[in-house]
Amino acid sequence: MRSRVLLADDHKLFREALRNMLQRHPDIEVVGEAGDGIQAVEMVRSLLPDVVVMDIRMPRLNGIAAIGQLLAAHPSVKVIVLSVNSALIFVQEMLTAGARGYVTKSDAEELPRAIRAVMHDLDYRSLEVAAAAAAPARAGNPIDGAA
């Protein structure tokens, strides 16, 4: 059974690159692309994907608010955050909002693995996110341990 995926990111070229990467995996089907949070929520309603891959910072409605809205209406949808930011504060906010996975854009090649994991009701953190979570905080900076 193929996992139906919606991509939500405000950068069209990045969405296209993700689509091209995911199309190489026969068990994953990209069913749509959204350029902002409102469009993502609307597309979930019409396309009913299994997984939404969502950026945090998007116009009109950010990823945190979009996750809350789409999961309120469609609680079975799995959300994976795909962001440039591995700061623990963002990771915690997105997971609290209901995301099941968090992958950094620098680890985007892990996305197929993340999709498969959340489809099996497992949580997923990319290598960079897991490393940031394991790093001790320095000088009162709980975000990533960097000074």
Q: How many angstroms does the end-to-end distance come to?
A: 46 Å
CATH superfamily heading: Response regulator
The radius of gyration over CA amounts to 15 Å
CATH class descriptor name: Alpha Beta
Question: Under the CATH scheme, which architecture would be assigned?
Answer: 3-Layer(aba) Sandwich
Note the total helix count: 6
Order of H and E elements: EHEHEHEHEHEH
Number of strands: 6
Described by strand count, sense and barrel closure, the largest sheet is: 6 strands, parallel
Gross morphology is: globular
Average pLDDT works out at 89
Which structural class do the helices and strands define?
A: alpha/beta
The portion of residues forming beta strands comes to 15-25%
Number of domains: 1
Structure characterization notes:
The chain has 147 residues and is an alpha/beta fold. Helix 1 (12-22) links the parallel strand 1 and strand 2. It has a single domain (3-134), classed as 3-Layer(aba) Sandwich (Rossmann fold). Strands 2-1-3-4-5-6 form a 6-stranded parallel beta sheet, with helices on both faces. Mean pLDDT is 89; it is low at 138-147. The longest helix is centred in the N-terminal third of the chain and has 11 residues, at 12-22. The protein contains 6 helices and 6 strands; from the N terminus they run E-H-E-H-E-H-E-H-E-H-E-H. Helix 2 runs parallel beside helix 3 (63-73). It has helices spanning 12-22, 37-47, 63-73, 88-97, 111-119, 127-134, and strands at 3-8, 28-34, 51-54, 78-83, 101-104, 124-125.
